[in-house]
Design brief:
The chain is of the alpha/beta class. It is 44% helix and 17% strand. The radius of gyration is 22 Å and the shape is globular. The two termini are 35 Å apart.
Length: 344
């Protein structure tokens, strides 16, 4: 790969920043408000991760994913997860076919996972067996059926939605699957002005439309650019110490009264650190910089860590949520680097 000059890098970053703003603008024609949610989804897309959108029904989670797919020149599929959905309904299955000579053979019929933007709607309504059908696709970007592996087209992103309130007839995602999501995004209610705008756009005669902004190769080029963003060793160490601060009884978890030691049963995995760095890289470029700072790490900390903290019974009894624990971790973790070999 040819080494880029500083001027070429600056031009590529500026072009990506403009494209990113165009995407935000196009999606904003349909999605009113929710700028932070849209920003987080796009950040995950360009970092090469998957997204879990959590919020009560009617807040626009499905609409956001559909609108994103319309702005990208990529194949899109929606999978409605229900208790009777089977793994073969997701990944596909071998079927018997017969040619004009009466000869029969097995032929693989692809499932809806063979798209590039996949909406897993209400993912927690399907059984764990069906939920697990997404694991290989999310992690390896491939699907194995009857001993044969099929590679999925790139770029590939799974955007799953779930309702945090309804518990009847749902199956909570296992920790291993939650860890495969780069971000967990909490979708909140709209403000008054935004709600008035939503009424104007959805109850009037005109329906908002969006234009396509990017194709597959442009997205892959952007993902490659993001991975080449510079992260100084002390910033990278800060991300690692944030993850280590989620491990109870660890050196970076704080004293006995810290939220981690009191409320956390299991902390974040190395995937959490990877998500912090990649998410921070995207934010740095969208802010006009080609290097990651501490604030970029802090900006994506809740998105990366909230679903990777497994809380104990005491946290449930005290009604402590993961975001509050991440808040304290950010407060007690200094940005100054720890000397090599100390507290490692």
């Amino acid at each position: 790969m040819t080494e880029l000059t500083e001027q070429q890098v600056a031009e590529k970053c500026e072009a990506f920043k403009q494209t990113y703003e165009t995407l935000l603008s196009e999606i904003g024609k349909v999605m009113v408000g929710q700028r932070d949610v849209v920003d987080a989804v796009l950040t995950s897309l360009f970092a090469g991760g998957n997204v879990l959108l959590e919020g009560v029904p009617g807040l626009g989670k499905t609409l956001l994913v559909r609108t994103l797919a319309e702005t990208l020149h990529l194949p899109f599929s929606r999978i409605q997860f229900t208790p009777d959905l089977m793994p073969a309904d997701v990944v596909g299955t071998n079927i018997v076919t017969e040619d004009e000579h009466g000869r029969r053979a097995f032929q693989f019929q692809q499932g809806p996972i063979f798209a590039q933007v996949v909406l897993a709607d209400e993912i927690n309504r399907a059984t764990p067996k069906t939920q697990s059908a997404l694991l290989e696709a999310m992690q390896e970007r491939s699907v194995t059926v009857a001993g044969e592996t099929y590679t999925l087209d790139k770029p590939f992103i799974v955007l799953a939605t779930q309702n945090p309130i309804e518990q009847e007839g749902t199956y909570p995602l296992p920790e291993a699957q939650l860890d495969r999501f780069m971000f967990k995004i909490s979708v909140g209610y709209s403000q008054l002005d935004d709600l008035m705008t939503i009424l104007d756009r959805t109850t009037g005669a005109e329906t908002p439309t969006v234009s396509r902004v990017m194709d597959a190769q442009t997205i892959l080029d952007a993902q490659q650019l993001i991975r080449s963003v510079v992260v100084a060793p002390h910033v990278k160490q800060y991300a690692a110490r944030l993850v280590l601060a989620t491990h109870p009884e660890g050196e970076h978890a704080g004293g006995s009264g810290s939220a981690t030691n009191k409320y956390v049963r299991t902390g974040a995995s190395p995937r959490g650190a990877q998500a912090l760095v990649l998410g921070a890289k995207v934010r740095a470029v969208t802010q006009g910089r080609y290097h990651v700072g501490h604030d970029d790490i802090k900006h994506v900390a809740h998105l990366c860590l909230r679903h990777r903290l497994i809380l104990n019974f005491e946290a449930e009894a005290d009604r402590v949520d993961p975001d509050a624990i991440v808040d304290q971790i950010l407060q007690i973790t200094p940005t100054e680097p720890v000397p090599t070999g100390v507290g490692a």
